[in-house]
Amino acid sequence: MFKNVIVRIPSKHVSDGITSANEGKPIYEKALVQHENYVSALTKAGVDVTVLKPEDEFPDSCFVEDVALCTKKCAIITRPGASSRREEAALPDMIKTLHHFYTHVEQIKEPGTIEAGDIMMVGDHFYIGLSARTNQEGANQMISILEKYGLSGETVPLKEVLHLKTGLAYLENNNLLVAGEFKNDPRFADFNKVEIDPDEAYGANCIWVNDYVLVPEGYPKVQKKIEALGYKVLIVDTSEFRKIDGGLSCLSLRF
Ligand code: CIR
């Protein structure tokens, strides 16, 4: 069960977020409304949501998932690989909030880089994508920290997607949404794999929150597959975040 979630209100300059998508720029006012609806869906799923104030000078700062890993035992502040995002991990209100919830707060150090969108938690084990943002050194540091707390980790090289969780979502109960390059990855062979079609690949970025799964709006096949597993689905429109490569998981820390 998750009890707590941390989010950050989008920056006024969210339209300047890093992107590889060709879908135009996010509209700030619309992003704000979508973010409010996201918080409402999380609240409905029974978690307490801590809403951090906007940090206008960081266009991508609403994607708080990337700046920390929140485990059962400790929080780990990351060191983002994107240079424009590096200082997001040092924002004082985020650090203060993590210390409020955790006795143990660790930190990834130079030359390690890691963004926690590359980390998927499955119980006490953590899959860590090696991506353009997360390097081997960052993954090694993360695994050492996890092991210090009786947790474990392993790396997964990425070829196509931005972050590991762009193409994978663990929905608990051994259920794993898999898209694209992960469909035949032997590391995930023992999961109950729910394959996402290429035309709905973005829809693989869902989040499990207690009895609910939040699913992005506009992915009916993904929605049906998740409902067929017995989950209660909450649909959230993320169109503005999609324009800058963001999705449901990126917008929160859940623990
Ligand atoms: C970035 O490129 O860093 C942002 N525009 C999107 C971050 C998405 N975060 C995530 O997948 N965890």
Describe the protein's architecture and organization:
It is a single chain. The chain is of the alpha/beta class. Helices cover 22% and strands 24% of the residues. The chain is built from six helices and 15 strands. It has a three-stranded mixed sheet, sandwiched between helices. The chain has a three-stranded mixed sheet with strand order 3-4-5, with helices on one face. The model has no long low-confidence stretch (mean pLDDT 97). Bound molecules: citrulline.
In short:
The protein has 255 residues and is an alpha/beta fold.
Topology:
Blueprint: E1 4-8, H1 28-44, E2 48-52, E3 68-70, E4 75-77, H2 92-101, E5 105-107, E6 119-122, E7 125-130, H3 136-148, E8 152-157, H4 164-167, E9 168-170, E10 175-178, E11 192-195, E12 207-209, E13 212-216, H5 220-228, E14 232-236, H6 239-242, E15 253-254
Parallel strand pairs: 1-2, 4-5, 7-8, 10-11, 13-14
Antiparallel strand pairs: 1-15, 3-4, 6-7, 9-10, 12-13
This protein binds citrulline.
Citrulline binds at residues 17-19, 60, 63, 65-66, 82, 85, 117, 162-163, 166, 244-246, 249-250.
